[in-house]
Each structure stands twice: as C-alpha cells, then as structure tokens.
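Thread: Newbie trying to understand structure tokens

Hi all, I'm a second-year student working on a class project, and my supervisor (Dr. K.) asked me to get a predicted structure for one chain before our next meeting. I've only ever worked with sequences, so writing a 3D structure as a token string is new to me. If someone could post the tokens and maybe explain what I'm looking at, I'd be very grateful. Here's the chain:
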Amino acid sequence: MDGVPARTVVARSFAEAGDHVETLTSDEIPVAAGGDGTVNLLARALRAAGKADRPLVMMPLGTGNAFGYRFGHGTVPGALLAIETGTPLAIDVMTTTHPDFPLALISISAGFEARMLASVPRGLWSQWIGLIPALLRVAPRSSSGIGVTVDGESLIEPAERVYNAGLYNLPYYGFGRLMWPDAEPADGVAEAVVCGSGRAYWRVLRRGLRTAQPVDGDPSSRRWRHARFRADRDVQIDGEVAAGGDFEVRVEPRGLTVLVVPRGGAAPPLSQ
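---
Reply by user tm_fold:
Sure, no problem. This is what the structure looks like when written as tokens:
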C-alpha cells in the first residue's frame, strides 16, 4: 500500500464524525482507528449521512476489538489487507430505542459484562494484572432487575436472578474469543443468550455457546428479530457502559457495509 494517499481526522462526538463523513470523496475508504465504540460512532455517522453502503474497515487500535475479528480486521495487518483487497459485505445491525445508543453492531448486555466494564478503568484493560481485583469483586455476583423478551417470548424476567443476559449480533467477544458461533452478521437474525449462573457463563467463555451443553436449561439461547430489553442498572453496548432502561431492539438486515478480508488472504487467521 506504499504511496496510497490517506488522511486522518479526529472525531470527539457524533456531530464531528458526521461532519467528516460528509467530506468523504468517492475513492476514500472510511476507517475507524480505535475500538468497538469508534466503529459504532463511524457506523452511526455513515448511516445518518445516507452512506451505509460505503464499505468501512476497523483499524483495531482499541481494547477488545470484537467487531474486527469476524471480518479479518482483528489485527493491523488484517485491516490493511481489507483496505487493499477486501470484498464488500452488507451486514445486519441492531437498531434500538435507547436514548444514547440508537445502534449496536456487536452486543447489548446486562449483568456481569456491564458490571465488569463499569468496574475497570480504561487504562487497565491492557494490563491483565489490573483486572484481577475488579474480577474478584464482580465475578461471584448475580443480578435481578433484568428482563429480555425476544419475538414475544420472555427469556428472563426482572424479578428473577441472572448472571448475564445479552443480545449478540456477531460471534466474537473482545480479544477475539469465539463465543456465539451461530451469530452470523448477514442472516437477518441475532442471538439472545441468558446465563443464569456464573458457571454457565464461564463455560461458554471457555468453549463457545454450542459446545457448552446446557445444565438444567442453563444457558438458554434464542435466535430473534425483535427484542425488548429491560435493566434497572447499567448495560453495555458495543463495549461502552450506558444507563439502563426499557428499550426496544430490532435486527435491521443490510444496515451497514464492511470490507471483508478475502478467504485465503495473508491476514492472520481468526482467533478461536
């Protein structure tokens, strides 16, 4: 890619991201240089400008970089390869009525994942030793006040206790961990997963959802198109902590376009 012109802009808000998106020329590829929250911001700006068909790439300079792994952008060499030879793919997105996050590309969850993100300062995520105190604080706990209904079927009610409940549009967790192998990005549905116990959640984290056989019905999962999510405390949306509430979520097919590393490309293989 030597000699290919590029420009770098800084967007500190959705409004700034929108201003930069408006200046894209026809031959420029929008690249989100950051983590999952940065990709979310760029995707929102592209959609608001009527440019959801402009293929984007994630340059994985954030912490977990979950978005990039499904498309071969999980490493910087992979992202560069996607820019150079990537194939456009129209993918599903999750649109929401949450006042702060109208769009989710990867996940929406409450329980352990939200508690963990809220407990650990950003600077410590790259230092595993810094995660241990927070993990010891939040890992043993379950929560109430979380409700998930998908396509009219209740998976968990607020009065029940649950370890983690989430809606997942992509198969990878942060750091490239394969969690939800059936959560394909362009099939018109997403995955809902409820882990009533910590044992079930950590079993999924180690081996993936489909290989973690349910014990006494735990974890439970459903494919869905329309969901209602309720949480009386923080939720996480695409790796960012947001206020809880009662909001709707819908799968919107072909709501965004991504450049995908071609099969047989030189990028490192996706993490399993």
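A couple of things are worth pointing out once you decode it. DSSP finds seven helices and 14 strands in the chain. The first helix runs from residue 14 to 22. Feel free to ask follow-ups in this thread.
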